[in-house]
From TrEMBL:
The keyword Transmembrane is annotated on this UniProt entry: yes
InterPro entries the UniProt entry points to: Cell_div_FtsQ/DivIB_C (IPR005548), FtsQ (IPR026579), FtsQ_C_sf (IPR045335), POTRA (IPR034746), POTRA_FtsQ_type (IPR013685)
Organism: Pseudomonas zeae
Purpose of the protein: Essential cell division protein. May link together the upstream cell division proteins, which are predominantly cytoplasmic, with the downstream cell division proteins, which are predominantly periplasmic. May control correct divisome assembly.
UniProt keyword terms in alphabetical order: Cell cycle, Cell division, Cell inner membrane, Cell membrane, Membrane, Transmembrane, Transmembrane helix
Membrane topology term: Single-pass type II membrane protein
Record region (Disordered): 1-23
Protein known as: Cell division protein FtsQ
Spans traversing the lipid bilayer: 41-60
Subcellular compartments: Cell inner membrane; Membrane
Length: 288
């Protein structure tokens, strides 16, 4: 057997010879890769708070310097709304202490409260209009009835007291405990709608302390006013009973009826007017 012969083969064309042994070269890492990287997370977290503080301070300083030029005195008051019971002059006089302020310092809430304390004002809205104007929109009370002898009731059942009541004697007069204003108003509206088809109107409605109701109709096309004693509770049912009996029996005699008592369970009682004695004509005396 012939011994194995080792032959050294030259490298293939285009290839570099591979170094042998432990003396192979190792590629060096760049210096930037071997140095520790700087951590900027702390600076980033600090940047936004500082920026906000700077912006806030700049805004405050700018507003402070510009405020004297922007905050002008109030030179115009515009009053809006359909006013029938109060005049614009009365409104201007009422808010005069507030108008001396400037555009940004004027007390709108205080002005609104002051206006709504006027008896005829039900609601007030107040707003600024740049650069020197205040717009006031007013809603007046809508009087529906008199409350006792000194006040009026609006359509919400709320009492208010104007200075003069002489011009409102044509309104129905309602009476009751102070806490029952809305209750009396609601009953008035319900009963008034039930009586209207008969030609009756309500001249007076009273709720007494013990809960009894008394109603007086106004004189009109159906005849002179009559008094209805309604008692406690079930007012609508009692009024329906009166309407049914009125159409069948009472209609032709209504001018002779003074009051009707509806406090019975299944009927009513009629109180008749006293007949008026005819006046005797005095004989004429002949003069010579």
């Amino acid at each position: 057997m012939q011994g194995a012969q080792l032959r050294h083969q030259p490298p293939a064309p285009g290839r570099k010879p591979v170094p042998r042994g432990a003396s192979r070269m190792v590629a060096k890492e760049p210096m930037s890769a071997r140095l520790p990287k700087a951590n900027f997370g702390f600076l980033k977290s600090l940047f936004w708070p500082v920026l906000l503080v700077v912006l806030g301070f700049g805004t405050y300083e700018g507003a402070t310097r510009l405020l004297p030029y922007a905050d002008r005195p109030i030179t115009k008051i515009a009053v809006q709304g359909d006013l029938s019971y109060i005049s614009q002059q009365a409104v201007q006089q009422r808010i005069a202490p507030y108008v001396a302020s400037s555009f940004f310092t004027i007390d709108l809430a205080g002005m609104r409260t002051e206006l709504e304390q006027m008896p005829w004002i039900a609601h007030a809205e107040v707003r600024r209009v740049w650069p020197d104007q205040v717009v006031i929109r007013l809603e007046e009370q809508l009087p529906v009835a008199r409350w006792g002898d000194e006040s009026l009731l609006n359509n919400q059942g709320q009492a208010f007291t104007p200075k003069e009541l002489a011009n409102y004697e044509h309104l129905p007069q309602l009476f009751g405990p102070q806490r029952a204003q809305q209750q009396v108003m609601q009953q008035y509206q319900v009963l008034s709608q039930m009586l209207r088809p008969l030609g009756f109107s309500i001249a007076r409605l009273e709720l007494r302390e013990r809960g009894s109701w008394f109603l007086t109709t106004g004189a009109g096309s159906s005849g002179p006013g009559i008094e209805l004693l309604l008692g406690r509770g079930n007012l609508v049912e009692k009024m329906r009973r009166f309407i049914a009996i009125y159409d069948k029996t009472l209609k032709d005699q209504i001018t002779n009826i003074a009051r009707i008592d509806l406090r019975y369970a299944n009927g009513l009682a009629v109180g008749w007017r006293e007949p008026v004695a005819p006046t005797t004509a005095q004989p004429a005396v002949a003069k010579n």
